[in-house]
């Protein structure tokens, strides 16, 4: 198969990363299935290449819609070679003050929605003995900050299951990659994320929400370059399990893991003596 013969399916294409990835994939000459809960928002993408673009309605929390979307994708293009699990939402609040309805909704989309898509596509990819699953995590899947506790929990869950999947799927020639962006200009921290103002944690949660809102639209990350980076790893013969995106992502990750390794070594004696001697 030529690289450009690969068929992509991308979730959450109405805005943000999903839309930019879709544009870049279409411009690169791939066949692509673009999806959103409201497919009317995707007409611009369809107009880019009528022949190579299929627009479908898709709510990743609706298993029936997921099943139908995959069936229609295969009917139109014959396969699904790259699944981009991009659909997701954010939620800002302290852990203590978070609203259960909002946190459960976020888990349904960020984690269970991602798994609905993944589990539905796996039989096809196994039968093809090929495929690449791109799971959107975040630098918040590696390191945590105040005001985003439950959001971090969804992304840590995506990280953990993706590591297992990568090992389970290796014999089937199916790749798994986690995408871990820092701040990008996708409006994620602005109007796109629900916020419950903190009455108890003004110095931590309150300040974090203020910083996020004031910086929205001025983040360092360029979504178009992120999309190009994702195409690069899909076209690579040896794609990474983790792709950090953005200078801040690099800085946060290296800071966390340097400190983690130092702490592991500091407590090594206590750690290793816990075994039967």
From TrEMBL:
The record's Gene3D superfamilies line, in alphabetical order, gives: NAD(P)-binding Rossmann-like Domain
Question: Which CDD domains does this chain map to?
Answer: 17beta-HSD-like_SDR_c
Q: Which domain of life is it from?
A: Bacteria
User: What are the record keywords, sorted?
Assistant: Oxidoreductase
Whether Oxidoreductase counts among this entry's keywords is: yes
Pfam families the record matches = adh_short (PF00106)
- One Gene Ontology molecular-function label: oxidoreductase activity
InterPro entries (UniProt xref): NAD(P)-bd_dom_sf, SDR_fam, SDR_oxidoreductase
Q: Which NCBIfam families match?
A: PRK06180.1, PRK08263.1
What is the protein's given name?
A: SDR family NAD(P)-dependent oxidoreductase
């Amino acid at each position: 198969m030529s690289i450009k013969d690969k068929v992509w399916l991308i979730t959450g294409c109405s805005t943000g990363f999903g839309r930019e990835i879709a544009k870049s994939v279409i411009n690169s000459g791939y066949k692509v299935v673009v999806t959103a809960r409201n497919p009317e928002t995707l007409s611009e993408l369809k107009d880019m290449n009528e022949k190579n673009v299929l627009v479908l309605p898709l709510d990743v929390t609706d298993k029936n819609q997921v099943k139908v979307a995959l069936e229609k994708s295969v009917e139109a293009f014959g396969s699904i070679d790259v699944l981009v699990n991009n659909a997701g939402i954010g939620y800002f609040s302290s852990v203590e003050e978070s609203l259960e309805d909002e946190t459960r909704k976020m888990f349904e989309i960020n984690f269970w929605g991602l798994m609905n898509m993944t589990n539905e596509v796996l039989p096809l990819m196994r039968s093809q003995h090929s495929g690449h699953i791109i799971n959107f995590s975040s630098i918040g899947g590696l390191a945590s900050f105040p005001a985003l506790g439950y959001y971090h929990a969804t992304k840590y869950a995506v990280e953990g299951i993706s590591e297992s999947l990568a090992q389970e799927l290796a014999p089937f020639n199916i790749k798994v990659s986690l995408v871990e962006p820092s701040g990008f200009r996708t409006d994620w921290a602005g109007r796109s994320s629900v916020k419950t103002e903190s009455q108890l944690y003004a110095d931590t949660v309150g300040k974090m929400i203020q910083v996020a809102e004031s910086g929205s639209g001025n983040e360092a990350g360029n979504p178009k370059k992120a999309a190009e980076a994702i195409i690069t790893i899909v076209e690579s013969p040896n794609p990474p399990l983790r792709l950090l995106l953005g200078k801040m992502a690099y800085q946060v990750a290296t800071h966390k893991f340097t400190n983690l390794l130092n702490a592991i070594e500091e407590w090594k004696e206590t750690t290793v003596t816990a075994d039967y001697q």
